[in-house]
Design brief:
- The protein is 41% helix and 24% strand.
- With 283 residues, it is α+β, with helices and mostly antiparallel strands.
- The strands form 2 sheets. It has a 6-stranded antiparallel sheet with strand order 1-2-9-4-7-10, with helices on one face. The chain has a 4-stranded antiparallel sheet with strand order 3-8-5-6, covered by helices on one side.
- β5 (49-54) and β6 (59-61) form a beta hairpin.
- The longest helix has 21 residues, at 129-149.
- The radius of gyration is 19 Å and the shape is globular.
């Protein structure tokens, strides 16, 4: 069950935008399946628990961070289970491109979509010609970005079943502080390391090594958000990086900024500015 506190729908050429604020303080379940591609962008809300799955492949374990996205290809099913907070999020609904299908992924940071959602929502309140023209350009940019950033891997080779994909997500989540070897993941999935490499990329859109690094960065950001004063070396070792410098290099390479920038980043009250609701903030 879900409890919508507010919801706003905006239409641009080839793209519909939904901005929502929802009460997920109690156990909440979502499901999405439709004829269009959907991209969910988390804006705010510190959930205690969150697990998502897209047709048994892409998905996530652990609370969402602001700016993380979940992609649901047209005709596929998304399910999510959450508890712990009032949340706000945006959903882009796009016409699918049969020549460039997208993957079903979860918990992937995307600052472009994070920022453009706010701009499109602001433009929707303006009635002048220039605002409509800018909105149309941004909607086109979103469609192109989604097609490039989340392009599906070629449908060949081995695939992961729903249970194997979920087992891999949870295994990585539970063992981030330890070294995670390819052989261990292959054993969890019940296949050879060689076959796992192909199947993992199809399901998660990346290699096992890169996925583990991404999950370590997610957990580091959560720890920094929970306690901005926490020692960075302690954070690095807790999430499985070998040192403070190793974590910093990964932050810069993947997210464009050092971990300190995420710890010190100011809070902006974006939800009130959009007129969607009160008391939420976009970090």
């Amino acid at each position: 069950m879900t409890s919508h506190l507010s919801e706003k729908h905006i239409r641009w050429p080839g793209l519909d935008l939904t901005i929502a604020r929802e009460d997920a303080t109690r156990p909440t379940e979502w499901s999405i399946r439709g004829p269009r591609d959907s991209v969910i962008v988390h804006l705010a809300g510190a959930l205690r628990e969150l697990e998502t799955e897209v047709d048994g492949g892409g998905g996530s374990v652990g609370p969402a961070l602001a700016g993380e996205v979940w992609t649901i290809p047209a005709g596929t099913s998304y399910r999510g289970w959450a508890e712990g907070a009032e949340i706000s999020y945006v959903v882009f609904h796009l016409d699918p491109d049969p020549e460039r299908p997208i993957s079903g992924l979860g918990g992937v940071g995307d600052e472009f979509l994070h920022g453009v959602a706010a701009r499109l929502a602001a433009l929707a309140t303006q009635k002048d010609v220039s605002a409509r023209a800018e909105g149309a350009r941004l909607a086109t940019a979103v469609r192109r970005h989604v097609g490039r950033a989340f392009a599906a891997s070629p449908a060949r080779g081995h695939s992961l079943g729903s249970e194997a994909a979920r087992a891999l997500r949870w295994y990585v989540h539970a063992n981030l502080s330890q070294r995670i070897a390819l052989g261990e993941l292959a054993e969890v999935a019940g296949m050879s390391p060689h076959h796992l490499l192909t199947a993992f990329r199809r399901a998660f859109g990346t290699t096992p090594t890169q996925y583990v690094i991404a999950q370590r960065l997610r957990q580091a950001r959560r720890l920094l958000a929970a306690d901005p004063t926490r020692d960075l070396t302690d954070v690095a070792l807790t999430v499985g990086f070998s040192s403070h410098s190793h974590m910093t290099a990964a932050f810069k390479a993947r997210l464009g900024r050092p971990p300190r920038a995420f710890r010190d980043r100011p809070v902006r009250d974006a939800i009130d500015r959009w007129g969607v609701g009160r008391g939420s903030s976009l970090v």
